[in-house]
Specification:
There is one protein chain. Helices cover 25% and strands 36% of the residues. It has 198 residues and is of the alpha/beta class. The protein has a single domain (2-191), classed as Class I glutamine amidotransferase (GATase) domain (Rossmann fold, 3-Layer(aba) Sandwich), CATH 3.40.50.880. The strands form 3 sheets. A 7-stranded mixed sheet has the order 2-1-3-4-13-12-11. A 4-stranded mixed sheet has the order 6-5-7-10. A two-stranded antiparallel ribbon has the order 8-9. Strand 5 (86-91) and strand 6 form a beta hairpin.
Length: 198
């Protein structure tokens, strides 16, 4: 199995390192040919507007949408990746018009809701996957807040009652950065167990 990491912008190298620590084959994805060769995809943190423009100017965004809908292609988005997976995105309480998300996960998010980069913080949170539980540090950097979730979305972790990690079918999203721990998280390990139809 080859795990792709969208590598146009953001902290993709950290995800690649995590995957290699898990003895997985990782591939940086920058075009449609790269995407065709992977069995699942991580969309890292970064600047969501820049990443959205890249996705839809190259056709990679539409192909991710197609594979999710037709193959249950597993995708995991962290921070900006979670924003891109969302169906609805707000900035300062107003619907975001500068870019379009992939619209695959039934969540609404507010961009940069925790403030500027200088207001980044880390807290220990509790993740739950069925019977598996893990307490781990969650690093929030210009993180989004999840405003609402659909009925099919399962909350895996909360911070002050707000969802910060979620699953919907073969889609995972976290508003924090588990990859910056430098050790594999329960989220990464669980993501690798998701089975697609492709």
């Amino acid at each position: 199995m080859t795990v792709g990491v969208l590598a146009f912008h953001g902290d993709f190298a950290e995800h690649v390192e995590i995957l290699r620590n898990l003895n997985m084959k990782a591939k940086e994805v920058r075009n449609l040919e790269d995407l065709a060769s992977v069995h699942r995809l991580i969309i890292p943190g970064g600047e969501s507007t820049v990443m959205s423009r890249f996705l839809f100017s190259t056709g990679v965004g539409e192909e991710i949408q197609r594979r999710v809908q037709k193959e249950s292609f597993p995708v995991y988005g962290t921070c900006a990746g979670a924003i891109l997976l969302a169906k609805e995105v707000f900035s300062d309480g107003v619907p975001e018009s500068r870019f379009r998300p992939l619209g695959l996960m039934d969540i609404s998010v507010e961009r940069n809701a925790y403030g500027r980069q200088t207001e980044s913080f880390e807290e220990v949170i509790s993740l739950h996957f069925g019977a598996a539980t893990e307490d781990c540090p969650a690093i929030f950097i210009r993180a989004p807040k999840v405003l609402s979730i659909g009925q099919e979305v399962e909350v895996l972790a909360r911070h002050h009652e707000l969802p910060i990690a979620m699953r919907q079918g073969n889609l995972l999203a976290s508003t924090f950065h588990p990859e910056l721990r430098n050790t594999p998280s329960l989220l990464h390990r669980h993501f690798l167990t998701l089975v697609s139809r492709g």
